[in-house]
């Protein structure tokens, strides 16, 4: 997992893996911020956690940093990369190295309100419903194929903070569900569309 902040989505995913609600393990956590909370939370759970300096750019990794991230992730033999508040746009070689294997969660109903502070964008725009989206990562900003979405109503008394809190609560339910489905091989990309294949069961029940 890659993150730049406190790591709340990392925690719910790590706990879902530990409880085997997700048939996977978190192999490594990387951050572009040396004192990021996500690194501390990973270490508390005895998960390998490393800071890798992002280099000279403000919004993306430079070539040297990109190579270091790729090498580290390959050494950890990761099958899927989940972004959890990673504040760098991934480009070029990184996307080629892990094509179709990078997912992200964004706090809006994409394609509405991509970019930073999407909850504030939604509130300022006056929409009545917003939410969160899990999507595959491509070369654009929050523009990859959408895996799943969860709606969150915008209340008349909402502030940016209260709306963000409710969106995060929705994220914490949606993100592990999507990663679990990918781990089970139930998600298929067809062009821009992501199809959830029927889950096979032995007794007809979930």
Task: Kindly describe this structure.
Residues 201-206 have low confidence and may be disordered. The protein has 206 residues and is of the alpha/beta class. It is globular and about 50 Å long. It has helices spanning 8-18, 37-44, 63-75, 92-97, 118-125, 160-183; strands spanning 29-31, 49-51, 81-83, 102-106, 129-136, 146-153, 187-190, 193-196. The chain starts with 7 loop residues before the first helix and ends in a 10-residue tail after the last strand.
Instruction: State the total count of DSSP E strands.
Output: 8
**Percent of residues in helices:** 25-40%
Task: Output mean pLDDT.
Answer: 95
Taking pLDDT < 50 over at least 5 consecutive residues as the criterion, the unreliable ranges are: 201-206
Strand order of the largest sheet: 3-4-5-6
Radius of gyration: 17 Å
Helix/strand order, N-terminal first? HEHEHEHEHEEHEE
Structural class: alpha/beta
Strand percentage lies at 15-25%
Question: Helical region count?
Answer: 6
Major β-sheet profile: 4 strands, mixed
- Compute the separation of the termini in Å: 28 Å
Morphology: globular
Give a short summary of the structure:
With 206 residues, the protein is α/β, with parallel strands linked by helices.
What are the SSEs and their pairings?
Blueprint: H1 8-18, E1 29-31, H2 37-44, E2 49-51, H3 63-75, E3 81-83, H4 92-97, E4 102-106, H5 118-125, E5 129-136, E6 146-153, H6 160-183, E7 187-190, E8 193-196
Q: Key features?
A:
single chain; 206 residues; alpha/beta; four-stranded mixed β-sheet; two-stranded parallel ribbon; globular; disordered C terminus
